[in-house]
Amino acid sequence: LFSSNMHCIGSKLPSAVRLCQRLCIQPLSGAAQAPQPIVKAVLPDLPYDYSALEPVISADIMRLHHQKHHATYVNNFNSAQETLAAALAAGKTSDIIAVQAALRFNGGGHVNHSIFWKNLSPQGGGEPSRFLLEAVNRDFGSFSKFQEQMSAAAVGVQGSGWAWLGYNFKTDRLQIATCANQDPLKATTGLEPLLGIDVWEHAYYLQYKNVRPDYVKSIWKVINWDDVENRLDQAKSGGVKLA
Asked: Manganese/iron superoxide dismutase C-terminal domain spans which residues (predicted)?
């Protein structure tokens, strides 16, 4: 069974340039060049009302999380793109390097949350359908064992970060991973993100205080398994956008 955790931290992480390439930023060339068109990130609408996930996640949390936190990642990422474009055009290597952290953090925040909103649904919960359930049973032994491992990974994240269920293209297996801060799963591990649990405190503190395990236990009631399965199907047939 291929279910060991992978962490998105360490010396083997690809540079933020790889993330930029995935988000329509021109790669580094080492020489001054004409400015390239910037494809700005856009804050997506939620596919449900802010109160739709209650009582699992309150409307106040959802509104703050979406309108403030995600919106800030989008705005800061777009600003960082402009800084990078200017640095590339001027051939200023130091400026190019300096903006990488902002691109990684804010671009990752945008990617992660764009997946997270669709991973949740007022009609969620229960177990996935046969196609996904068979894969879960194969790679983790059972759905309950998968939930236990995924929950433990989420609760165990030190500080802020994410727990993910990803698809490993090389092994054709599902895999659990954890990422620090807003590191995006695919750009840092190669795993296709299928299901993410946000364990930053802003995702739960207003409602669950500092008891992260209660939040993680409750969030399973609103997991949109149709979306997770659709992402797996797309990964197997050629990949998904914005990840």
From this structure: 131-231
